[in-house]
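**User:** Here is a favour to ask of a fellow structure person. Please take any protein you like and set down a full record of it. No explanation is needed for now; the record alone will do.

**Assistant:**
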Amino acid sequence: MGQKTLELISLVPWTIVAQWCNLLILFLLVRKFLFKPVQNILAKREAEISASYEAASTAKAEAEAMRADYEERLSEAREEANTMLREATVRAQTRGDELLNDAQRKSADLLQKAERDIAQEKRRARRGQKR
């Protein structure tokens, strides 16, 4: 029984060489038809992801620049609106003062005219009493 077992396990050099050749051929075939395409697919996918990341980064930078521009324009518009409001307030105050002064002057003129008319009527009335 020991002899039969040894015969079954015996190593034939040509079989070992054939097994190694088969293994080498299998490795080369798997490498050519499986590993290379998979590596190419992975490299392509990595390039796509990198391009997407770059595009997202560029879009983010553009959005931040647009936001800063928007905030600057909004600030300028608010400042301009406040300036216009202050100028309008000053003009309205000036115009109000002018109208008030004009009304006071007209009122003073009317009062003086009324006082002159009253004084003149008093003189006429006194002259009329003297006669």
